[in-house]
Model the fold of this input.
Amino acid sequence: MKDTFARAENLLARIDQLAAISEDETGVTRTFGTPAFLRGSALVRSWFEQAGLATRVDSIGNVRGRLESRHPVAKTLVIASHIDTVVNAGKYDGPLGVLLGLDLLENLLAAKTGLPFHVELIAFSDEEGVRFHTTYLGSKVVAGSFDQTLLTKADAQGVTLTEALRTMGGDPAALAQDAIPADQWLGYFEAHIEQGPVLWENRIPVALVTAIAGQQRVELTWRGMAGHAGTVPMDMRQDALAGAAEFVLAVEQFGLRHKAELVATVGKLDVRGAASNVIPGDVVCSLDLRSADAACLGTAYEELRSLASQIAESRRLTLHWNPIQQTAPAVCDAHLNELLAQAIGEAGHAVVPLVSGAGHDAVPVSAVAPATMLFVRCYKGISHNPLENVELADVAAAIDVSDRFLHLLSTHYQTHHSA
Ligand code: HGY
Ligand code: MN
Ligand code: MN
Done:
């Protein structure tokens, strides 16, 4: 049996191998359905198959490997995370959870330790939502909550999700068949880097996730009047970029005023037909709102929507406010969290409960199954950035805690389920 440090080294070597597959030269970019994504997916599939898992790629592009229990009617524990990335990403956001899950199963197989329940290891195909600007496509299919209307969504090149699936070899008509029925779920376990500074600042290797913030994502289109930068007097302009810029700063001020309970970000700003000597007439920006408090999220959404309208009116602009995605906050399962907290304690670590500001595939899954998440410390809390990094000892700690969690869950399952 390999020790957890050797296992962590093997896991990190695989992460490096996967990270070398990217759409661009600098950081890591593998967005849903691109050739680089498909090469990365094929590599992960080969690892699942080499481990001896019954492996397939489902209709939305999730890579799925099953380790069946000897009890045919047993329930299924899903261990998962995602292998798609943001643009110019780090290596660990997503792949750490998938490859830690693979390590857990390889270790069980090497020790010939059977589990009383089935395990399905899943590398979700689109958690970030970069290409179609709507997240959790892969996990929503597995959770049975995929919204068929999403199939008509088009990417920046006008390619619809249906066309993208067909190009990937997926089948839009088979999505519903790839859900795990609600009564077959035992639970969901995901390990993920914290993507925040708490563990780094407090020098703690792992944390227990208690809840995951809700999200509101909006696309705003500001339209004014394109004009000659040299001839239109300042007080006669309908400058769409100036309006969007006023909104960007207003969002930052709003977030600072409410920083205890929410975060607000404008991450994209696109000046259509941009030229230095043209007054911008058509500007698109994004809004990303997060809060663990559903009421607060709703109030903030309405306040910022009203503010955007006032800015547009004061500048004689038209505003199209297009809500892209709304995800309610998710609460992790108390019972699974009790077992995970016990595993963290038995591994010799303080149990630190954290709310996740980042979204995770556990969100759609938590609507259909009990979900629990383990956070792993990352370098200065940096994520969605090539500087993203983890320490070997923290990965080894996460493996140790996860082994213990599986053992506790197995013991509990046997006590509460007849063979
Ligand atoms: O945006 C997020 O919260 C995550 O990275 N999908
Ligand atoms: Mn991410
Ligand atoms: Mn992630």
Q: What stands out?
A: The mean pLDDT is 96.
